[in-house]
Amino acid sequence: MKDFSYPVVVVGGGPAGMAAAISAKENGAEKVLVIERENRLGGILKQCIHAGFGLQYFGEELSGPEYAERFAVKAKEAGIEFMLDTTALEIREQTLVCVNTTGVLHINFGALVLAMGCRERTRANLVIPGSRAAGIYSAGTAQKLINIYGHKVGKEVVILGSGDIGMIMARRLTLGGAKVKAVVEIMPYLAGLARNKAQCLDDFDIPLLLSHTVVDITGVDRVESVTIAPVDENRKPIMEKAEVIDCDTILLSVGLIPENELTRSADVTLSGITKGAVVNQYKQTDKPYIFACGNVLHVNDLVDHVSHESEDAGKYAAMYAAGKLPTVDQIEVAPGEGVRYVCPQKASPADMPIDLYFRTAAPGRNTTLTVSDDNGVLITKKLLVTTPGTIEKMTIPADKAKNISGKIVVTAVHKEA
Predict the structure, then answer these.
(1) Which CATH superfamily is domain 1-119+256-327 in?
(2) How many CB atoms lie within 10 A of CB 192?
(3) pLDDT tens by residue, 152-202
(4) What sections of 35-110 are H helices per DSSP?
(5) Is the pLDDT assigned to residue 13 strictly greater than 70?
(6) How confident is the model at residue 328 (pLDDT cuts 50, 70, 90)?
């Protein structure tokens, strides 16, 4: 067993972890260690070979590997230390227990940043009936098989779920010679970004069936067909209108879950909606020495948001390790009318801007977004279109943040559904 000690330790070498580590170093942490279970940095971006990353952060369009490489180079230049092929097992107070080929490691820290990302929901999460034939993949698994290992996953494909990875894979499969027969979405609206529908489905004439779901999978050795049916307002299948689509492959793009087993080991409070940690504006959990950022906190649609959010987590983790992060009473930040969730869920009056990230509960047009506290309206913003597939961001300016009181509530009121 080996013992190490660092002011700041980051778990996860993806875009969130690298941004947090760089920021911690830039904000005074003498030594920063990144723990990564894979053999190279980059996280999920390594398999995201399509363009569209970095438009907000770098002001140019990059592929996933290009975006990750920029952060990896910067992290190495900053003198950040890495332990690759190392798995974090447990948090015991201010000690992180890890394992790799050298044995069990005990890493003591002043502050810990959790940046483990998220995982895909599976068929087991949905309890889809039918056979257990070959040809059933999560969208991310198919993406890895195709883009990293060069395998083909199927010739005729149905995709369940209109999440961003699913729509991107519809395009990728089409470009690879497969026939995507339909993207099936149980909700009456798109789950992912509108730009991905336009670029990945509309441009390739791939049908999108809203308010539909898969009710059966048939096949013995290999998938032979799926049965889809429209759903009613309660999302119950209308079986008399079911139809069969012949295919040899089904991809599941049915949502992501923050990877929080490690978080639970520290008894950190989790949100019932985001499934990530409950944090304040410093990305600090109710265990004050533990911070969280990126998709392990709440699932983002843009990696640019992940980077900015994670820079905050790294900065404040470094301040905490140095004894410089203020501790004051916290007030609740809550979703109001038309809003599904808000992150952070807590805030403290402070002479600094407070960024609020949130998703609306349903799509709408001519939407008024409002942030209020017990004293009244703090800020408002009007948007022509809002959708649950896109994270919205509003910032309480410093001159108002220092005087917040009571409860902060975020609302979204649509003039048109």
Answers:
(1) FAD/NAD(P)-binding domain (3.50.50.60)
(2) 25
(3) 999 999 999 999 999 999 999 999 999 999 999 999 999 998 899 999 999
(4) 64-77
(5) yes
(6) confident
Q: Cα–Cα distance between 37 and 10 in angstroms, integer?
A: 12
Whether 98 and 107 have beta carbons less than 8 Å apart is answered as yes
The structure tokens 């983002």 sit at 300
Domain 122-254 coded CATH 3.50.50.60:
yes
> Does residue 339 come out as left (phi exceeding 0), alpha (psi in the -120 to 50 range) or beta?
beta
Strand order in the sheet with 156-160: 136-138, 249-252, 156-160, 179-184, 208-209
Instruction: Express each pLDDT in 31-68 by its tens digit.
Output: 999 999 999 999 999 999 999 999 999 999 999 999 99
Ranges of CATH 2.60.40 domains, the chain = 330-417
Which pLDDT value is given to residue 122? 85
CATH architecture, range 330-417: Sandwich (2.60)
Q: Tell me the pairing of strands 62-63 and 51-53.
A: antiparallel
Type of residue numbered 324: K
Of 326, 335, 328, the C-alpha closest to 408 is: 335
The alpha-helical segments, DSSP class H, found in 230-341 are 261-265, 303-321
- Tokens of residue 198, six digits: 């336009």
